[in-house]
Amino acid sequence: MLCRIDQGIRLVDVNLWKGLRIMVFFAHYSFKTIVMATENTIITNDNDDGIDRAGFIKCMAWAGTGILWMMNGGVLKSYGMSQLIDKTTGQLKQHVMVPPADFSFVQISDSHIGFNKAANTDVLGTLRAAISKINTMPSKPSFVLHTGDLTHLAQAEEFDLLEQSLKSVQTEKIFYVPGEHDVLNNNSKEFLGRYGKETKGDGWYSFDFKGVHFIGLVNVLNTSEGGLGFLGNEQLSWLQKDLEPLSASTPVVVFAHIPLWAVYPQWGWATRDSEQALSLLKRFGSVTVLNGHIHQTMQKTEGNITFHTAASTAFPQPAPGAAPAPGPMKVPAERLRAVLGLTNIEYREHQHTLAVTDAPLSESNTQ
Amino acid sequence: MACMAIIMTGSMAAIEPKSIASREFKNLSVLPKNISAGELSKIMIDEFEDGLGVSCSFCHAENKETHRPDYASDQKPEKEIARAMMRMTIGVNKKYFNLRRPLIGEPSLAVTCETCHHGVPNPGQQVGQ
Fold first, then answer.
1. Which residues of A lie closer than 8 Å to B, measured between beta carbons?
2. Which of A35, A366, B61, B117 sits CB 3.0–4.6 Å from A64 for a disulfide?
3. Domain region containing A321
4. Where are the strands (E) in chain B, listed by range?
5. What angle do the packed helices A274-281 and A233-243 form, to 10 degrees?
6. Which of chain B's residues have a Cβ under 8 Å away from the Cβ of A117?
């Protein structure tokens, strides 16, 4: 198969497997070409906007392992990746050409160390499998973002287990934001004691890396009615000041546990005061928001802001509205790892952009 | 999703207290006052969050000033219902399954929240119903 995509590329987000996402940023926004050649089929995309409906459906027919995300002009495009992965080695096929990047990083989420119910009785094993995936990537990621719910019950021994496992990740640094499971006891004392030393307030912070501004937000301490996330005025004020000195052309990546967009507020899958944060980000040309919490991959683009939610390394949850309530979802054991690794989206024809729809990960799993 | 802590206790022991409680919880009336933070969290997550598919705010009122859950507050009626449900669960296990000291959160229970709730707040609220 030959899949040729010509884009002015700024970001490539490859969701390889099991909640593992590599995001590749390009500091130079010059015209680049990526050629992805696999076996027997030809998928072409002649639309300069990235992908059309027919092309996407073709891609989805062979999707299953992950999706290649490409951002152009603040709009995210996605391309199925399943046949780019060699199933025998779990790595990108040798003849697949990944565009050169200034740096890359990986997002993992919702490891829930300590969870031991039927949905996954070996969350440490699946985390280690995700780590192995990171370590077999073509290029070592500059750092890893963990978007929360490191542990299931915020116990010290659970944090210890996670840290021991993550020591084997071949990367320079790991950044964390807490999930609501990480702050169950003592208002995040255990979490902040380990990861909050260089943070502000209740654990929020920012850093710059090769021209990209990263912001870690905490929206799980004040979870309000319906389980919605909440940022609070103090954090919003800090965010405003943090963004003030940045030029509008600075790429911004925001990461927090609970989605900052309304994935499904009925299940608490939204943040009550996220609009205030998003309004501060509107002046920037490229904003990417990374979240976890819902244990499935979704994406949505609103103007210059692209939202992603990551799959869990521990267990899946039902798609929004597909069950009476959220919670760990048991799937046949032989499907568990594939379900955790699936990126699940649907295409909605809307000015050549992709939109998120409510669909369970398991339905589109073909592995 | 996740709930944090605090409801219940009382005269009826719901889980074996640890010798050293990690902190003092307020307004427990079904669960032991000296329950460990880990055990209390496990009950909140396993029994209520996963068993009923709810988050903390289902039972716990929000402090309007801090916007954080007020775990000690009895403002929401759901909290007292949860206490009653725990008492009922303990009673059912004791009366009909001959468990001498049924404890909420213990794997030895014959009947748990999940037995009837199946992950939803209202047991009648199942898929397709």
1. 117, 149, 152-155, 179-181, 183-186, 220-227, 230, 232, 267-268, 293, 323-328
2. A366
3. 2-364
4. 61-62, 69-70
5. 10
6. 46, 50
The ranges assigned to domains in chain B are 1-122
pLDDT digits (tens, 9 = 90+) for B77-123: 999 999 999 999 999 999 999 998 888 888 889 999 989 998 888 88
ipTM of this predicted structure: 0.77
Instruction: Report how far apart the first and last C-alpha atoms of chain B are (Å, whole number).
Output: 24
Question: Cβ contacts (< 8 Å) between A323 and chain B: which residues?
Answer: 53, 119, 127
What's the pTM?
A: 0.74
For the segment A216-264, what is each residue's pLDDT rounded down to a tens digit? Answer: 999 998 766 778 999 999 999 999 999 999 999 888 889 999 999 999 9
Q: How many domains does chain A have?
A: 1
Q: In B, what residues contact A, Cβ < 8 A?
A: 1-5, 22-23, 37-38, 41-42, 44-46, 49-50, 52-58, 62, 66-69, 119-121, 125-127
How far apart CA A108 and CA A150 sit, in angstroms, is: 10
- DSSP symbol at A343: B
